[in-house]
Amino acid sequence: MEKSRPYVILSAATSIDGKIATVTGDSKLSSKQDSIRLHNLRSKVDAIIVGKNTVLIDDPMLTVRYTRGKNPIRIILDSKGTISKNSKIIQTSNKVPTIIAVSNQISKSNLDKLKKFPIEIIVAGKNSINIKLLLRKLSDKKIKSILVEGGGTINWGFIKYDLFDELIITISPFLIGGKNAVSLIEGNGFRKISNSPNLRLKSIKRLKNHLVLNYAKV
Ligand SMILES: NC(=O)C1=CN([C@@H]2O[C@H](COP(=O)(O)OP(=O)(O)OC[C@H]3O[C@@H](n4cnc5c(N)ncnc54)[C@H](OP(=O)(O)O)[C@@H]3O)[C@@H](O)[C@H]2O)C=CC1
Ligand SMILES: Nc1nc(O)c(N)c(N[C@@H]2O[C@H](COP(=O)(O)O)[C@@H](O)[C@H]2O)n1
């Protein structure tokens, strides 16, 4: 692992067929027990990252609620700074530390809108967000551990550049199907299995009908 970036854990709940949301964006795959596990994990990391589609579709809080513990910093990857001011993330930015990562593509008007809220804006990249550069900037801010909570497009962004250390996937007892449903990993994917990162199964935990798989990069 490079020293210049935080420790990165990719986290998601999938159906048995590897989807993280249906075609309509329904994504509640975890059980209550698994959500408690997730919130416990959230309380142990310095920051959570999600993509802008996840904010648009889920309107998440990304806080610790099902257990006691500190809220991590919330980081949204949103090149053009299009996040809605009505989103829970923006509306609670006075209570939970929040960073919006943008690129040079952001318009002045979007930047001005974001600057009205108590959020930090980090510019990292010319077009899309340069994740490697962003991680370096987060490292400079003493952020040592990050939980990446999707969606599929963001997951691919971390996987394709080999910018993660661990993978924690809950396999939920559902079958979703549909070529337009969101997969754990979107994007172009690898052309050969030999291009995949090598993963070592660290643990399997059974939570009734859910299985929590924890893989580490070899
Ligand atoms: N079951 C689960 O565990 C989870 C399910 N989900 C589900 O996933 C779905 C959303 O996933 P998805 O549509 O893939 O979108 P994402 O949430 O992954 O967001 C993708 C967007 O992030 C922006 N982005 C900024 N920088 C980058 C970068 N370097 N690499 C990739 N993307 C970047 C892009 O928009 P731009 O170019 O404009 O910046 C891109 O379109 C939702 O339905 C949600 O419910 C999400 C998380 C967990
Ligand atoms: N681990 C996991 N299981 C699921 O079933 C999920 N739907 C998700 N989604 C991620 O968690 C966010 C919601 O967080 P809040 O409950 O609003 O705090 C969601 O936006 C995804 O990032 N994860």
State the main characteristics:
218 residues; 22% helix; NADP binding; 11 strands; riboflavin biosynthesis; 5-amino-6-(5-phosphoribosylamino)uracil reductase activity; single chain; alpha/beta; binds NADPH dihydro-nicotinamide-adenine-dinucleotide phosphate; Dihydrofolate Reductase, subunit A; binds the ligand Nc1nc(O)c(N)c(N[C@@H]2O[C@H](COP(=O)(O)O)[C@@H](O)[C@H]2O)n1
Ordered list of secondary-structure elements with their pairings:
Elements: E1 7-14, E2 19-21, H1 32-42, E3 47-51, H2 52-58, E4 73-77, H3 88-91, E5 98-102, H4 108-114, E6 120-123, H5 131-140, E7 145-148, H6 152-160, E8 166-171, E9 182-183, E10 199-207, E11 210-217
Parallel strand pairs: 1-7, 1-8, 3-4, 3-7, 4-5, 5-6
Antiparallel strand pairs: 2-9, 8-11, 10-11
In short:
The protein is of the alpha/beta class and 218 residues long.
Model description:
With 218 residues, the protein is of the alpha/beta class. It has one domain: Dihydrofolate Reductase, subunit A (3-Layer(aba) Sandwich), CATH 3.40.430. The protein is built from six helices and eleven strands. The protein has a nine-stranded mixed β-sheet. Helix 2 links the parallel strand 3 and strand 4. The chain binds NADPH dihydro-nicotinamide-adenine-dinucleotide phosphate (NDP) and ligand LIKH6CAM. The ligand Nc1nc(O)c(N)c(N[C@@H]2O[C@H](COP(=O)(O)O)[C@@H](O)[C@H]2O)n1 binds next to strand 1 and helix 2. Ligand LIKH6CAM binds next to strand 1 and helix 2. Keywords: NADP, Oxidoreductase, Riboflavin biosynthesis. Belongs to the HTP reductase family. Its EC number is 1.1.1.302.
